[in-house]
Amino acid sequence: MPEIKVTPLGAGQDVGRSCILVSIGGKNIMLDCGMHMGFNDDRRFPDFSYITQQGRLTEFLDCVIISHFHLDHCGALPYMSEMVGYDGPIYMTHPTKAICPILLEDFRKITVDKKGETNFFTSQMIKDCMKKVVPLNLHQTVQVDDELEIKAYYAGHVLGAAMVQIKVGSESVVYTGDYNMTPDRHLGAAWIDKCRPDILISESTYATTIRDSKRCRERDFLKKVHETVERGGKVLIPVFALGRAQELCILLETFWERMNMKAPIYFSTGLTEKANHYYKLFITWTNQKIRKTFVQRNMFEFKHIKAFDRSYADNPGPMVVFATPGMLHAGQSLQIFKKWAGNEKNMIIMPGYCVQGTIGHKILNGQKKLEMENRQTLEVKLQVEYMSFSAHADAKGIMQLIRMAEPRNMLLVHGEAKKMEFLKDKIEQEFTINCFMPANGETTTVITNPSVPVDISLNLLKREMALGGPLPDPKKPRTMHGTLIMKDNSLRLVSPEQALKELGLNEHQLRFTCRVQYRKTEFTIFIVLFDLLLKKCYTIQHLPDGTVMVESIVIKVSSSAEEPNTKVLLLSWSYQDEDLGSFLSTLLKKGLPSGLSSM
Amino acid sequence: MASQFSTNASVTKTILLPQEEAPAKKLRLTKPSKSAALHIDLCKASNPTDALQYLLHFARSSVEAESVEGVVRILLEHYYKEQDNSVRLKIASLIGLLSKTQNFNPESILDDTLNTFNTEKSHQVLAQLLDTLLVIGTQLPESLIVRHRLIEVAYKHLSDTYFGVRNKCLQLLGCLGNVDTPLNKDGQGLVPAVIGGSAPGVSGGVCVRDAQSLISDYFADQDPRVRTAAIKAMLQLHERGLKIQQTIYDQACQLLCDDYEQVRSAAVQMVWVLSQLYPESIVPIPSSNEQVRLVDDSFGKISHMVSDGSWVVRVQAAKTLGNMLQVSPHFLEQTLDKKLMSDLRRKRTAHERAKELYASGEFSSGRKWADDAPKEKVDTSAVNLIASGACGAFVHGLEDEMYEVRIAAVDALSALAQSSASFAEKCLDFLVDMFNDEIEEVRLQSIHVLRQISTNITLREDQLDTVLAVLEDSSRDIREALHELLCFTNVSTKECIQLALLELLKNLTKYPTDRNSVWKCLKFLGCRHPTLVLPLVPELLSTHPYFHTPEPDMDDPAYIAVLVLVFNAAQSCPTMTALFSDHTFRHYTYLRDSLSHLVPPLRLPGRTQAPGVSGIEGSGSVESAQLFLQQSLSRISTIHNLQDPGAQDLLNFTIRDLQRLGELQTELAGAADFSATYLRCQLLLTKALQEKLWTMAVPLCLKHNAMATAAAKQMLEETYKLEFLYSGLENRQVATIHHVRLQAKALQLVLTARTRRGVEPLISVCEKFLQEVESFQRLFVVELPHLQESFVGKLLDLSPKLSACKPGELVKILQTTLRQSGFLNLQLPKQVQRASATIIEPTGESDNPLRFTSGLVVALDIDATLEHVQDPHNTVKVQVLYPDGQSHVIQPKPGDFRSPGPHRHRLITQVYLSHSAWTEACQIEVRLLLAYSSSRLCKAVWSDSSTEGLQPAEGATEGTIPFGKPVKVFIMPKPARR
Q1: Residue B215 or A151, more confident
Q2: A203 is catalytic
Q3: What is the per-residue pLDDT across B264-306, written as a single tens digit (0 to 9) for each?
Q4: Cα Rg for chain B, rounded, in angstroms?
């Protein structure tokens, strides 16, 4: 039986380092090639030796698909393609292709320049790697080779995030990457058609959470910012450069616009400006409102949000500042925080998750005194708020996607094992489909039952139509005669004659013959028999030489020379008329049943 | 090829030659010109393309009813000869078009059309032919025989392989099919007779199987388009008032999961229709042995569709939810519950948390890190992720990406909340959240919705806070909608009042143009919550027990706002006045005069008021005023003839009384004005007739003539005002008004006869008058019994004589009838409202002229409120009158009208002014006009007369009534600099 194999090299019962291998219809595909942020050793990259111990990966992989530009989905790409070695095509959407190298370069700089690591990929490697990228458009079917085709669907999450459908023949797999089922201020909701894949590989970050209405969150956020600004306080929002930052910017920008507010909003420069540029470009990837209004005004051309300069932090009066990085562990956000922490009028809003050990985590847990470097302590008087703006689908969203796509099997990745377990139960219970959650390196095999397409010759079909009978009913199978030719990987159903012609074979006719002897007196039976056949609407022909044809059955009467009293009946019929022929012969041999003669 | 051609030719010949003669003859008899031309054209056409061109050309011209049949015959004749599908298709569609011709009975071409089905092979043409049949069928809805024949055809072609043919068949069945068996039984007698040759078994089959079961078979068709058509046909049956059986409910529910969006969308409608037909029947829940009401079950299913993949379906589902009012509250409330869960523990929603915080007396300090840490552990098996039924439908709908869906969801919420108070309470939080939507339309809509349901709810402080935050919105529409909302809102505590006042004052400083709106809002707030305002009064007026505080500035809009709030509260809270300081009283008297619509009369201790005012207002409830109105009118009714002595005085007094009453009692202003105007008309008539001078020779009394002519003219004008300016009139009053108009016209006629010599012009005028009398009779047949003793009643008694007599005699008759006819009593309807308009902007107070370069345009902002105007989009116009007598009438765009409340409209528009250069600044006049078109009500008849009979008053345009005060604006066109 044909089967599909799925092996996660990363993200199996785990978050981070997404890398999933899929074998389908003899093709091998790698989905995402991410790195783990938590490790600094070999474990940060997927274990490519699983694929091959030595040598390049090119001959083992047909293609690599990257779902979006987050590093845990594309961070290991240059390592894989340049250091391990892969020359095949890498597929990603246009925005991902544009933004991905920026992030990779940034990541490289931090690891190599700041931490001083060696044996890491170089800028040139990133460039070389990006040369292998083939861009994808939404809903565009791309033929990787003759049999393998891929198609991207909108996934929300971040700009350019896509879900991919991989299809070989009638077998298919859908990989969601990260996705979001509720639209936000700048991106729409993920959408997929009823493609009924054999396996749906879905992320499950929020497997056990059903989130609050996003409007509550937005309203709270705006209210807090508004109140602080009205009071004359300053608001610090530490963010990462891409993704949520843009959403919050739009949220504040529109609010400022609506409320006619005057307080300045600043955005720390650097990566973000480049990124904002791409957001402006890829307007088709955003949500309805932005797409519809960009002709009048591109939402990413912020009117109220200006670039931040270090000196602005000491300016008097209210202001809102977005600064990187998001966890307050270093850089500009930390500097500003130190300046503003002492004033209770100010506020800091943490819009995302903070890792343990960072200052962000500490202040969120209510620590009021922070020990800084060189033994200083910093008193935290400003208000600390937490507001989660996360762009993953929650449990309900995952269920909704399953309902949209109607997969035959389900496979969960990118989540914690315990939470997955719960969702797995739920899915099996609601949809009665199989659900898998393989760990890293563990292979899941799904047996598929693909339909085999067969070309049928038009003549044969027409002949079948001409034979009459009711019109084809899609619900009922119907039998027909034909010859199945399997040649060059293709299957064709043709009429026997054509098959013979094509294969250069001679037609052999198979005929059955039998003799029946009669006495002359019994010959009346014969006449009765004809009557019977006539009544059953068989065509009966009398040929000039005295033989009788019933359909293709030849009946010849001859009197034998030896016994003049008996007549010999010669029956001959072809293979096709076996039913009628054998019926006649038995009838003639046994004599007519008594009931028939009376008819 | 050649052989094929010859065979075809021979076939056509044998069949058609005999037919060709007959129609050609008939044609010449009926209408040869057009159809003959077509015939020649078609004969000339050498190839299909030409023929198609001729047909296309022909389709553009109109055909008279009498010649339709001939044309159709020619077309059909050509149809049989034509081998090209597209030409045949065009012919088929033309036949359909032609059969729609007015006054043409398509039954005559039915047989011919049906015959075409025997030979037609092309599926597309078949589909078009069926469409033609559909047109014919809808033209002849009452003919049972035709219907049966058409259904017969539809049934025959239902099994066609082409989806288009099946679609059309289903449509035919939907439009013409029957469901009830009794009707079929009637038909059964007819059908065999009609069908004649065809096998009775087939016709029996059609009759036994009703349209519904036939159509429902195609719910499972392989083609999605046919499935959609089947559902639509079923809906069509329902629309025609046939009762659909409940049996198809399961099928319809299955279609909700169809692969194609149009099928799902139609299925949503189908399920809804069934839920409305059989709300109470019980359906089992699969995989359990419980049962629910059908309406609840379908509600759950439709709610499910709110998270469908296609936004078209989502919009449909969200809209439909709003129409399911019978659903049980339990299910309804589920739609707002998303069952929050975090890490397997149930989490409370932010709304719940806000409520609890509020209950515990602490304000929401916002969300803390991990404060949504789950409390109770949830039983894994009990959590239903993909909710069975309605769970969270509205939460999803309101969060949808497409604003169309969000608006539909908001509307649905509103409909449901209006029918259920408890649901209104629950959906409040969600609606308030929508105030923060990214699309203004959605925000505005949700504010409107909240206003509509605000009678059912009381806002909590935290909710009010969110609502008030929107007051800073830069969009004027949003702010005004919100003011309107606050007018109708109930709040719970005095802090709420304080909060609202604060925010409104902030709004006032930020957007000073909102002044009127804010004051009005505070007026209602004060009226609604006197007890809540009371404890705030000292603080609001900043009075101090020991010290005199400085007197606030009387011109400060914010201070006025505070006073408006306090005075309105004091109206129903007598103890409040004790807290006022001296200057407050002074300010009260000032404001009572200057802003009397905002400041109510107060009974102040130690202060006397104008006795007249307090007299009426003290006990002057609406009832007593109503009584007074009735009495005045009944007093008038004692007058039988206007020539009675003293009648005129009585009329004069009553008119004066009514006018005063209208000023005092705004609720009755409409009714009082209406009656006063009516009486004035009568008075005018009496005066015009009463003069002894009528007996004198004409040249001697020119002065009198002029007076009477003016009276007649004024009466006519007044009748148009009476008819179109007041809403709430019944047919009876309209008849009375028209009666007055007839009287006025009669008077005019008499006057013309007197002044002019010669009979010729008089004849046409008389004829016209008689026509009008006739049409009056036609229009108000029902009312005629009430008009026995009146002018018209008497005229109609004489009517046979009238039409025969000469103009001179007619004039004499009219003169005497006018004088002798009795006074027609006015019956007041329950609610009469006078349309009124106030121009708020421009105020007309500015002395600074609007300067612009002559020849170019300048835009003038106009802001006006309209009350009791029906359909302002079509009737209200703006007129600009220049000093040189030039006038422009501008029709505002429909988008410039907003409707902030019932019977109220707001016109915010710009008019463009332009003029050649002036030497000095000069005033132009801007006014609003109410256009009446005679197509309203009794229209056609009066249309010609209204333009001709009514001499427009100075400045008024024909067919319009000026209403509202005009405003003067200084403008100054300067010559262009070279």
Answers
A1: A151
A2: yes
A3: 999 999 999 999 999 888 888 776 677 888 888 888 888 888 8
A4: 37
Tokens of B792: 């018209």
Tell me if B149 sits within 8 A of B115, measured CB to CB.
no
pLDDT band at B946 (very low <50, low <70, confident <90, very high): very low
Q: Which of A208, A217, A354 to mutate to test the interface with B (most CBs of B within 10 A)?
A: A208
Give the Cα separation of B896 and B863 in Å (integer).
Answer: 10
Residue of A nearest to B371 (CA): A386
**Which among A204, A215, A291, A428 is the top mutation candidate for probing chain B, defined by the most B β-carbons within 10 Å of its own β-carbon?**
A215
Are B321 and B306 in contact by the 8 Å Cβ rule? The answer is: yes
Q: Provide Rg for chain A, Cα atoms.
A: 38
Cα separation, A486 vs A491, in Å, equals 5
Give contacts of B 645-664 with A, CB under 8 A.
none
- Interchain CB distance below 8 Å, B366 and A224: yes
Whether residues B349 and A212 touch (CB distance < 8 A) is answered with yes
Q: Say yes or no for a CB contact (<8 Å) between A215 and B222.
A: no
Residue A278 CA to residue A297 CA, distance in Å, equals 16
Distance CA B412, CA B853 (A): 52
Which stretches of chain A drop beneath a pLDDT of 70? 241, 269-271, 353, 355, 468-476, 519-528, 530, 534, 537, 560-564, 591-599
> B59 burial class (0-12, 13-18, 19+ CB within 10 angstroms)?
middle
- Does residue B818 sit in helix, strand or coil? helix
Q: Which of A82, A171, A203, A218 is the catalytic position? A: A203
Cis preceding-peptide flag for B574 (omega within 30 of 0): no
| A27: phi then psi, degrees, rounded to nearest 5 | -110, 145
**Contact (Cβ atoms closer than 8 angstroms) between residue B278 and residue B246:** yes
Q: Which of A210, A364, A403 sits opposite B339 (nearest CB)?
A: A210
A297-308 pLDDT tens trace: 888 888 888 888
Q: Which residues of B736-765 are buried (b: 16+ CB within 10 A; e: fewer)?
A: bbbbbbbbbbbbbbbbbbbeeeeeeebeeb
Both tokens assigned to B378:
């949830």
Q: What does the block give as tokens for B896?
A: 């410039």
What are the phi and psi torsion angles at B919 (to 5°)?
-85, -30
Which member of A188, A194, A419 has the closest CB to residue B259?
A194
The whole-number pLDDT of residue A500 equals 86
d(CA A488, CA A503): 13
Q: What are the contacts of B802-811 at 24+ separation with CB within 8 A?
A: B802/B770, B802/B773, B803/B770, B806/B759, B807/B753, B807/B759, B807/B762, B807/B763, B807/B765, B807/B766, B808/B753, B808/B759, B808/B762, B810/B766, B810/B769, B810/B770, B811/B749, B811/B750, B811/B753, B811/B762, B811/B766
Query: What is d(CA A46, CA A61) in angstroms, rounded to the nearest whole number?
Result: 15
Retrieve residue B961's tokens. Answer: 């009534």
Residue written as token pair 């009124």:
B836
- Let me know how long chain B is: 978
Q: Which residues contact A431 (CB under 8 A, 6 or more apart)?
A: A402, A403, A410
Instruction: Measure the CA dihedral B33/B34/B37/B42, to 10°.
Output: -150
CA atoms of A155 and A177, how far apart (whole Å): 8
* Nearest CB partner across the interface for A208, out of B338, B343, B386: B343
Instruction: Give pTM, 2 decimals.
Output: 0.72
CB B704 within 8 A of CB B691: yes
CB pairs under 8 A between A and B: 126
Residue A361: alpha-carbon gap to chain centroid: 36
Look at residues A216, A521, A164 and name the one whose alpha carbon lies nearest to residue B395: A216
CA distances from A549 to A526, A572, A576, B66, B867 (A): 14, 10, 15, 66, 98
